[in-house]
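Format notes (please read before filing issues)

Several people have asked whether sequences and C-alpha cells are stored in separate files. They are not. Every record keeps both together, in the order shown below: the sequence lines, then the C-alpha cell lines. Line labels are part of the format and must not be stripped during preprocessing.
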Amino acid sequence: MSGRELAPRFGGTARANPGAAHGAATSASKETTMSTTDVHGPVDFVLIEFPADRVTGAAADALMDLVERGIVRVYDLVVIRKDEDGTFSGVELSDLTADQVGGFAAFAGARSGLADDDLGQAAEVMKPGTIAALVVYENAWAVPFVAAARDAGGQMIASARIPAQDVMDALDALEAND
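Then the structure lines:
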C-alpha cells in the first residue's frame, strides 16, 4: 500500500439517487425480484492531486463519461486547496472559473454530505502547493449484481480495494521478471 493512503470514514446514508442530476440513471432488472432502486453499489472515493496551476479537463471529461454511461454515480465532488504553509480549504466549484478547476465545474452541486467531515484527513495526504478533487462515487455498474446476490440470499462479508498504482507496480515487476 502507498504511504500516502487515505482511510475512508464515510458514514451515514447517501441521499436517494444523488447522481441523478449528473446523468446517472436507476434501472430495474428483469432478472431479480428485488428492485435495484432499493440497492446501492459499493461507494468509493478517490483523491486526485494536481499541481495548483495544472488542472485540466481530461480527468473531468473521463469522469463525466462514466456518469453518462451509468457506470458511476457521483455523490460528492469537493475541491481542496493546500497552500505552501500547509493550511487547506475546501473550495466551492461554483466559486471557481473553468480555468481554475478544469472540467470539474460540470459537477458543481454534486454534494451528498458524505465527504464533509473528511476534508482535513484528505488534506493531510496532499502535498503543499496542490489542489485536489475528492470524488465520492457509487459503482452503479454493480447494482444489478448486488440486487441479484441479495435476492438469492447472498450478503457481502468482505471487500477491499487495491490502489491502481499498486496494481501497475506489481504488473511492471512481473513483466521485468519475464
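For reference, the curators noted about this record: The beta strands are 43-51, 72-82, 88-91, 130-139. Residues 51 and 67 are 25 Å apart (CA to CA).
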